[in-house]
Amino acid sequence: MAINVLPDYCSLGFIGPGKMAESIARGVVKSGILPANRICTASHRNKTREDVFQSFGVNIVENNKQVVKNSTIIFISVKPQIVKKVLVELKDDLNDKILVSIAAGIKLKDLQELSGHDRFIRVMPNTPSAVGEAASVMARGDGLEEKDVKYVSDILGAVGKIWEIEEKYFDAVTGLSGSGPAYIYLAIEAMADGAVAAGLTRDLALNLASQTVLGAATMATQSGKHPGQLKDDVTSPAGTTIAGVHELEKGGFRGILMNAVCAAANRSRELSS
Q: What is the CATH T-level fold of the domain 180-272, as seen in this structure?
């Protein structure tokens, strides 16, 4: 994947040094699109969070106002419940900054009204940003130029794949790719537990389960085949795989995953109401 290095005048700030901000910052530094010395976040009451960001070269500044002052592109990466407080506090300092919200459930119109600022992009990333395999979507506000959107798209494209969509689909995206890594981690853990019960060592079981998920996902994205066809390709008559699939179907596996996505999407809607 070709990397578009951001121009020298671009710098990146994070309001809220949480896990998602860390994932994006790590991914950006690893990709080479922006050096760590042009990224900053504010000091935090949890010193561990500061240490994590400093460990890969990110600058720690005194407060959120300093983050805004030192950055051209600012990620609002706090919990949804405190977005209003943060935006009201920073309202007079935003000027021509590009603001990127990754707060679940907070709509563009609310972000713009709270901040008095229309250069907003709303993004739903996920934690595989840290290893360059994010699945992210974005929706743009009213006051952005095409180059602004491109800069943010380049940042997110450097840490995975990015799609621009209509904002009305964000709750569904939150339930799928936003929360989805947790579902897959549960599946990897459960598959490994099954292998341990069948006699494998824990390390081998975890490695095989993780690589199997990675390989299957790569097949799904690169083969051009529907997942159902890929499943059929593995399930020979009266074989081992169809026996396992049968057990999954008896347990309602597909329905449970569908319900998980819908539950997370509904929670996203509750946060935005």
A: ProC C-terminal domain-like fold (1.10.3730)
Ordered by start, the domain boundaries in the chain are 12-170, 180-272
Q: Per the annotation, does 57 bind a ligand? A: no
Residue 15 annotated as part of some ligand binding site: yes
CA distance 145 to 251: 50
pLDDT tens for each residue of 118-132: 899 999 999 898 888
Share of the chain above pLDDT 70, in %: 99
Instruction: Tell me: pLDDT of 272 over 80.
Output: no
Residue 143 assigned as binding residue: no
**12-170: CATH number:** 3.40.50.720
Question: Maximum CA pair distance of the chain?
Answer: 68
| Closest listed residue to residue 124, CA positions, set 80, 86, 88, 81 | 80
Confidence of residue 204 (pLDDT cuts 50, 70, 90): very high
Contact by Cβ (8 Å): 13, 24:
no
**18 annotated ligand-binding residue:** yes
More confident site: 3 or 213? 213
